[in-house]
């Protein structure tokens, strides 16, 4: 009842958060690659479970970022360098794993072997090990937080969280619905592209760290 009151008491703020949430999650990124890949590789029921993992991981990041972690990161250069440096290696590691396993995955209606533990770990990594998202997303969200009064804070953040829930589940449903009409080697090429993008992004982050140091 309290959550309902928060939303109905701040409709405009809630929908502003909803729009911002869609704007933040819609561009192709590691989280969307995670959702696409699992929707293609697993049954609809298992893909929905994995989409919930990424939603929970993303929501925890949103809450953490919303309450000014970005300000902390940007206030200390050393912390920013550490976050980006560690994140770059994790991103490259994920990309390498995707490339290494791409030939072993085929388009099937049953689960393609990813355990629940591995799926949850991957969801946490793509949400929390993306240093650019931590820095840019944190700054964006904490900046919006600074424009709101105390009564508007939770309707706004609930709008963001609702947007990501709708987005991840909608993408999961659409891809699962269409995957039987796609070429059987679509998984292989999708993973090759995804892995290449992640590795390239990881090296880009290393270059950004170099720029910060010199």
Radius of gyration computed on alpha carbons: 18 Å
What is the helix content?
Answer: over 70%
Number of strands: 0
Instruction: Give the helix tally.
Output: 9
Q: What composes the largest sheet? A: none
Question: What pattern of helices and strands is seen along the backbone?
Answer: HHHHHHHHH
Strand percent estimate: under 5%
Mean pLDDT: 77
**Which secondary-structure class do the elements indicate?**
mainly alpha
Contiguous low-pLDDT stretches (5 residues minimum) are 1-9
State the shape: flat
Please give the alpha-carbon distance between the first and last residues.
54 Å
Descriptive notes:
The chain is 82% helix and 0% strand. The termini are far apart. Helix 4 runs parallel beside helix 6 (116-128) and helix 4 (44-75) runs antiparallel to helix 8. It is built from nine helices and no strands. The chain has 214 residues and is mainly α.
Task: Indicate the topology.
Elements: H1 2-8, H2 11-25, H3 30-41, H4 44-75, H5 77-101, H6 116-128, H7 131-145, H8 150-178, H9 186-213
Helix pairs in contact: 2-8, 3-4, 3-8, 3-9, 4-5, 4-6, 4-7, 4-8, 5-9
Annotation keywords:
single chain, 214 residues, flat
